[in-house]
Amino acid sequence: MANNLNQELEGKFVVLKAEEYGKDQLKRIFFCRGGFGTSPKTSGSAIFGYFVFDGEDCRVEGYEIERFATGGEVEEAEKFRGK
After folding, report:
1. Domain boundaries along the sequence of the chain
2. Buried b / exposed e across 36-66, counting CB within 10 Å, b at 16+?
3. The three-state (H, E, C) secondary structure of 40-57, written as one string
């Protein structure tokens, strides 16, 4: 399994695990652009994308995914950008 959700993640927003990225949930919202970890059918776990709250491009691992982000969470995280 390439990611904890065992689902296609490319083009989707997820929340990363607190034990890996801190307790502030809005700072853990991540947009998945691509990588082997975005597909449940691959053996790789790398996911490339960006943190919504600050736009930082980053690589995360599929096992660091907690769940899908809600639309409201994404909107709140986007408010941080540019501050």
Report:
1. 13-80
2. bbbbeeeeebebbbebbbeeeeeebbbebbb
3. CCCCCCEEEEEECCCCCE
CA distance 14 to 50: 11
Q: Please write the tens of the pLDDT for every residue from 8-38.
A: 999 999 999 999 999 999 999 999 999 999 9
pLDDT given at position 71: 95
Entry field: residues in the chain:
83
Question: How many angstroms separate the CA atoms of 2 and 5, rounded?
Answer: 9
Whole-model pTM: value is 0.93
